[in-house]
Amino acid sequence: MRTQERYKDYFKDHYGATFSKADFKQADFLFSQFKFINKVVNLDSYKNKEVLEVGSALGAFAQILMDFGIKNYHGIEVDKDAVNFANKNLGNYFENLALEEIGGKNSYDLIFALEVLEHLNDPSKGIKIIYKLLKKGGIFIGTSPYPFQKNVLGDPTHRYCLHPKNWEKLFAENRFSKIKTYPMSFFPFIWRINKKLNIRIPFYIPMKYFISTTLIIGEK
Fewer CB within a 10 Å sphere, N or C end of the chain? Predict the structure, then answer.
């Protein structure tokens, strides 16, 4: 079964997406992650560079990047309905592709993959593809849920919820250098009140509803 077939109706069934402007509210949750990423990696220097987002979902993070000034954006996503929605609302920047299907070599200066690695059939192979797609000196920025049981079982499509040290090993084995990981946890639902209240908590929290994920940054 192709990845696209396996993820048919994923955002509709798992997240209750309505494919309306209300779905862009997710950008308020991602805002704090973007702010912290921008502290760690100077994203100003990438505004005119080639940027790929793997797992672009409904386009909420793409909207943040575009508002920030990223000009050469390309998104790939396996849920076809999500791709159609993002293209309709943000422009034709998105393709219905799996990471394993994208072509090219040394094509991108910066690659994002937020909450994607844990879904891959073979994360080592996926990391190898990402390495190939990056230009020399290019940066990968991704997140993946900390391996609490709630994160392993919370999504039936999660295959590899790994410890940060496991991710570091996989990236090192696939020739990445300067690999760093950072804990990121967030209070549940508070971002719905005000995105500025969604402050990053710098450790992992096993409690129900708290979101705990690992930020992974690697340089080619």
Answer: N
